[in-house]
Amino acid sequence: MRFTVSLPPDQFDLQRCIYSGQVFRWITLAEDRWQGVDGGHWYRVTQKEPGLYEVETNGDEATFRRLFRLEWDAQAIREELLQRGPELEPYLGSLAGLRLMAPSDPVETFFSFLCTPNNHIARITTMVGALASYGSPLEGNLYRFPEAEVVAGIPEAVLREQKFGYRGATIPRAAGELARRGGRAYLESLKSASYEAAIEALISFPGIGAKLADCIALFALHHTEVIPVDTHIWQAATRLYFPEWRETSMTDLKYKAVSRHLRERFGEYAGWAQQYLFLDSVLNWRSRAKG
DNA sequence: TAGGGACCTGCC
DNA sequence: GCAGGTCCCT
């Protein structure tokens, strides 16, 4: 079906959302045209003018609006974040329209973030696309991401041939463990678990540490109060809140302290704050690397 | 506990 | 050299 979405640009900037490291299954078809997959749905989106998107999909308007959390008022959330942390102003100011997304398929998100450690976004996108092609076809060359059992059955050698490197071993191993615990139903059950319980469950997977567990809790299980502390957030957090830890390396203890501080400061909107801090850091990594 | 190094590949 | 880290080792 086809429909249009009309929102002010400061409420919704699709390009910023899909290239901010939350999802890895979108490509740019033309300057103002994108294509993406989320769960069992594909979307082709054309920006007709600022604030007006035309969407073609095998899903419907509700699935699209859920994916981008369009029912959340981004302006109100930005104001709330500024109340809780005025120091966020420079980060929020230049990234209008960026939104925290809500990917619908926890299995797809689980494996997407298993591709991210010690990696960069361009290659992550390639790898997630390669894994997705083991799933069932949706339309053209678009696939629904496969279940854990299927990923578990991919031989390490095959993934290594596909340039997965050492992740060719860790991904099927984690998949086997997920399948053993019940696959999709297991991840769904963690949605209603407490943050602490979900993290404890996720962190016991091979290849998943504190950071990936937080990413999966935020993007797959929709625990919006979570703020994964990656290298970018670590830089920002030590600059803003833990100056005594600047230039030091992260440890388990520091991770917990920073994570808890940010979670308590920004509450249920911590995930949104993370998105602004992360994208700002990625876009400015050149200048920031200098000093 | 806190450090330090290895790990695949690709792009600066 | 270093990427949205994790694991293993002193």
Topology, please?
Elements: E1 2-6, H1 14-18, E2 26-30, E3 33-38, E4 41-49, E5 52-57, H2 61-67, H3 74-84, H4 89-93, H5 106-114, H6 121-132, E6 137-139, E7 142-143, H7 148-152, H8 156-161, H9 167-181, H10 184-191, H11 195-203, H12 210-219, H13 231-240, H14 252-266, H15 270-283, H16 285-290
Antiparallel strand pairs: 1-5, 2-3, 3-4, 4-5, 6-7
Helix pairs in contact: 5-12, 11-12
The protein binds a DNA duplex (12 and 10 nucleotides) through residues 21, 113, 116-124, 160, 163-168, 170, 206-212, 215, 228, 230-233, 249-253, 278, 281-282, 286.
What does this structure look like?
- The chain has 291 residues and is an alpha+beta fold.
- Helices cover 51% and strands 12% of the residues.
- The protein contains 16 helices and 7 strands.
- It has helices spanning 14-18, 61-67, 74-84, 89-93, 106-114, 121-132, 148-152, 156-161, 167-181, 184-191, 195-203, 210-219, 231-240, 252-266, 270-283, 285-290; strands at 2-6, 26-30, 33-38, 41-49, 52-57, 137-139, 142-143.
- The protein has a 5-stranded antiparallel beta sheet, with helices on one face. A two-stranded antiparallel ribbon has the order 6-7.
- The longest helix is centred in the middle third of the chain and has 15 residues, at 167-181.
- The protein is globular, with a radius of gyration of 19 Å.
- Residues 286-291 have low confidence and may be disordered.
- It binds a DNA duplex (12 and 10 nucleotides) through residues 21, 113, 116-124, 160, 163-168, 170, 206-212, 215, 228, 230-233, 249-253, 278, 281-282, 286.
